């Protein structure tokens, strides 16, 4: 077993465990921490694939910005433990477990029987090429999305101020 495979298994287990803990934990603060660990593990998987740019973007956007956004949202809201009714029946839990296990088995079967041939031509791409595409050919679309996000932020502030008054 190679070192890359060992790191893949470690990162995959951290990502899966973090995703399961997001659902299973009761406190929102614990959920945010497990979400950050899951995002970091996915960034590690990107690094293992040789996609360093996407890994850095994963860390900056998801681990940094989205996790901080959740922390701010958690600090600014009143989050009590609210139950949504009685716990599901045992047969519902068993049925959902069987459904998830079946889906996992089908996915593993599909992945194991997938016939992927190796490419002899290496992937050639760099941050410079991405920047030239983004700021060259798609500059107007990039500016349009920036204006859209800015107007959404202003709209959220206006709605929040009206609600506070």
Automatic annotation (TrEMBL):
This protein's UniProt keywords: Cell membrane, Membrane, NAD, Quinone, Transmembrane, Transmembrane helix
Membrane topology of the entry: Multi-pass membrane protein
Keyword Transmembrane helix: yes
Major enzyme class: translocase
Stored InterPro entries: NADH_UbQ/plastoQ_OxRdtase_su6, Nuo/plastoQ_OxRdtase_6_NuoJ
Pfam families: Oxidored_q3 (PF00499)
Compartments in which it is found: Cell membrane
GO terms for cellular component: plasma membrane
Catalysis: reaction(s): a quinone + NADH + 5 H(+)(in) = a quinol + NAD(+) + 4 H(+)(out)
Membrane-spanning ranges: 6-25, 32-49, 55-73, 94-114, 134-160
GO molecular function: NADH dehydrogenase (ubiquinone) activity; quinone binding
Protein family per UniProt: Belongs to the complex I subunit 6 family.
Protein name: NADH-quinone oxidoreductase subunit J
Organism field: Salipaludibacillus aurantiacus
């Amino acid at each position: 077993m190679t070192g890359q495979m060992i790191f893949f298994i470690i990162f995959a287990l951290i990502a899966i465990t973090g995703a399961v803990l997001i659902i299973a934990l009761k406190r929102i603060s614990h959920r945010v921490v497990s979400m950050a660990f899951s995002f970091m593990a996915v960034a590690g998987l990107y690094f293992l694939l040789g996609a360093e740019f996407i890994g850095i973007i994963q860390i900056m956007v998801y681990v940094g910005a989205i996790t901080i956004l959740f922390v701010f949202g958690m600090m600014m809201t009143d989050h009590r433990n609210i139950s949504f009714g009685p716990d599901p029946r045992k047969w519902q839990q068993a049925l959902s477990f069987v459904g998830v296990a079946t889906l996992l088995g089908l996915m593993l079967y599909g992945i194991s029987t997938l016939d992927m041939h190796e490419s002899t031509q290496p992937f050639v791409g760099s941050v410079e090429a991405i920047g030239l595409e983004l700021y060259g050919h798609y500059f107007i679309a990039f500016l349009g999305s920036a204006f859209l996000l800015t107007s959404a932020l202003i709209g959220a502030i206006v709605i929040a101020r009206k609600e506070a008054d």
